[in-house]
Inverse folding.
């Protein structure tokens, strides 16, 4: 399969990239690692006039700690062009935010993880991608740079629908900040048809259990279930402040898709997907605690 | 058209390429290195695996222009002075090849693993080749070959 014709541009700076997007509304697409975009082009599901490669802009690939300041808690800052492989190997993330590593471990395969980027996955916002669930469960914020400057978007407001995000057409996602997770436990559990596939259902959980065994804080996010990744707020409320006994987990996760328009396709009908979501949500919570 | 310069198996190349030319087609059709295969063309099978700056990637999932300035290694770059690389020897020794279509990608994925992990266990071997599909062997001989390659590479170092 050959991609449709397009012109390739490789800006040397972010401002140049944003200016190019602004000058070609609707006709330019950003290229990060290309592990989703190039297959999309080959299948001719999109045919932009221009591909704007972010790969030649220095300083978009890093993982570093940002100490707490000005009322903001400590965070790990990840450059948008950081690859899954770099996330997988990061000693800082292993210590401060293991959920991201637990998630990238089951993204695609070695070769794809060497090219695919966190920013690319989040900007693409595939409803079955793994990273959106992890990022949503973590909270934090995303930095967007546009012709008018930069702004921060709260993770909870970022995913807006199938392949749709809060990014404006002329904005570039440049950084993802996730809170440091000390004293928390986490898990990412994924059901997929084959080992390297997108998620049929993916569940990310982080939680903190107190001295009295009660759950002090819990955050659960799912992917693959509907048109975008979402937080299971009802389940979180049902478990908050309680001991995470198997019976209670089962009861609470029975409602995990309540109010959610569950999607069905050739990989799994809506009813099946809803059931997998319940079972995997319960297992993910049990795995994390 | 864009002018790109790449180093492939140690040799420098400069070529004019169209924006949409995939790296795998650049390697096969412009540079005439046919060892890199196109299996699925959808990013799933790993037959098109090459090293980009030392790391395995799928060359059907990358544009040739993106490789400008990079160093690439293809399966043709593994032999030395007419002698096969130990990983290639190991695939022969363990009958890890039937039709051979997946083999270039398998060998490169195996080599990538062995460069960072000299003594992988079976699980690590299976994880390292999870992006490579083989329609023939059922994988067991390939897993055996990678373990054998670890032995051969250990010997050739000592
Ligand atoms: S041909 Fe590239 S992954 Fe199959
Ligand atoms: S030997 Fe035929 S595909 Fe692997």
């Amino acid at each position: 399969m050959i991609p449709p014709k397009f012109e390739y541009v490789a800006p040397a700076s972010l401002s140049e990239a944003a200016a190019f997007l602004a000058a070609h509304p609707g006709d330019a697409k950003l290229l990060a690692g290309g592990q989703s975009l190039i297959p999309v082009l080959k299948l001719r599901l999109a045919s932009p006039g221009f591909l704007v490669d972010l790969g030649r802009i220095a300083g978009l690939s890093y993982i570093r700690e940002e100490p707490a300041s000005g009322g903001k808690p400590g965070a790990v800052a990840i450059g948008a062009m950081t690859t899954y492989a770099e996330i997988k190997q990061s000693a800082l993330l292993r210590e401060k935010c293991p959920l991201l590593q637990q998630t990238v471990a089951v993204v695609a395969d070695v070769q794809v993880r060497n090219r695919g980027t966190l920013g690319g996955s989040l900007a693409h916002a595939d409803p079955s991608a793994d990273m959106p669930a992890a990022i949503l469960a973590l909270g934090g914020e995303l930095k967007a740079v546009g012709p008018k400057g930069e702004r921060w978007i709260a993770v909870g407001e970022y995913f807006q629908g199938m392949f749709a995000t809060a990014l404006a057409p002329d904005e570039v996602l440049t950084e993802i900040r996730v809170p440091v997770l000390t004293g928390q436990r986490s898990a990412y559990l994924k059901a997929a048809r084959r080992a390297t596939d997108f998620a049929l259902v993916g569940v990310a959980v982080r939680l903190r259990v107190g001295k009295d065994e009660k759950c002090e804080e819990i955050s659960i996010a799912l992917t693959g279930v509907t048109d975008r990744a979402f937080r299971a707020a009802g389940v979180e409320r049902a478990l908050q402040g309680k001991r995470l006994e198997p019976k209670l987990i089962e009861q609470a996760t029975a409602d995990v898709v309540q109010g959610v328009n569950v999607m069905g396709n050739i990989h799994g009908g809506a009813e099946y997907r809803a059931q997998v979501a319940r079972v995997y949500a319960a297992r993910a919570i049990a795995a994390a605690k | 058209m864009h002018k790109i310069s790449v180093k492939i198996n140690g040799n420098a190349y400069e070529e004019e390429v169209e924006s949409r030319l995939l790296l795998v087609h650049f390697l096969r059709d412009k540079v005439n290195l046919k060892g890199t295969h196109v299996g699925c063309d959808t990013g799933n099978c790993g037959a098109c695996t090459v090293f980009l700056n030392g790391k395995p990637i799928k060359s059907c999932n990358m544009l040739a222009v993106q490789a400008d300035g990079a160093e690439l290694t293809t399966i043709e770059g593994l032999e030395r002075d007419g002698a096969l690389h130990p990983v290639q020897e190991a695939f022969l020794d363990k009958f890890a090849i039937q039709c051979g279509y997946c083999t270039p990608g398998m060998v490169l994925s195996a080599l990538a693993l062995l460069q960072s992990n000299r003594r992988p266990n079976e699980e690590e071997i299976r994880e390292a080749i999870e992006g490579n599909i083989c329609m023939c062997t059922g994988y067991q001989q390939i897993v055996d070959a990678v373990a054998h390659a670890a032995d051969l590479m250990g010997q050739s170092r000592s």
